[in-house]
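Hi L.,

As promised, Acyl-CoA-binding domain-containing protein 6:
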Amino acid sequence: MAGDPGTDLEDLFDKAANFLKNIAGKLDSDRLLYFYARFKQTKEGSCNTSKPGFFDFQGKQKWEAWKQLGQKNKQDAMQEYVNELTRLEPDWLEKCDTSTQQSGSAFGGVVVSTMPNPDSDLKDEEKTIFDWCKEGDLEKLTKSLKKEGADINVKDGEGMCLLHWSCDRGNEEIVKYLLKQKANLNELDNDGQTPLHYAASCEHISIVQLLVQAGADVNIQDFDGSKPIDTTNNADILAILNKNS
């Protein structure tokens, strides 16, 4: 309703979010993540998605920034967003071209996604079994495995096998397939970490459960002396690992 402070703040927030596109190029990653987290909190509420894989650097940064807001309410998130933009650009509202404003903001990850991403695009013919595993394409992974006659426990340059990668990416379907193919549950990467270390640190609860049920050793320490239980604060995962330690 007209004059409602909440509605006024929402209108201001939408204008701020649209204006931010104009200056995003001169902001550092920390500032972009600050805005991203508050945008997500406003539009979707508290973060309730699984933590991205260990090697999804950009995804983890965005997830962690959002997760840190906890139960912050929508109004506070919007106000902090507007306040920070005003601190950076005191006259942003005057500069704002209202004729180009849209009903919804285009800033919700688009700008943050311009940060460097380590994953490069490859043509299908250039992809390996590891690429198909990372992408979660079980059909092409199985075809590639058969075509190459590869060992199910083959490792890449990081010492990671397919089970490591599927646990990192949280692909339960591929994890189940690899377990059926007798993949080594306790294979170590170059840091001495098992697939269970990856599943636990990335907070993929169902995969942690699958690995433990299949007989994964919960007490293996990596080269820094950390067990899988030391890599997470997730209560559900802690309960599973404690029960089986």
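The two ends are 57 Å apart (CA to CA).

Thanks again for sending the construct details.

K.
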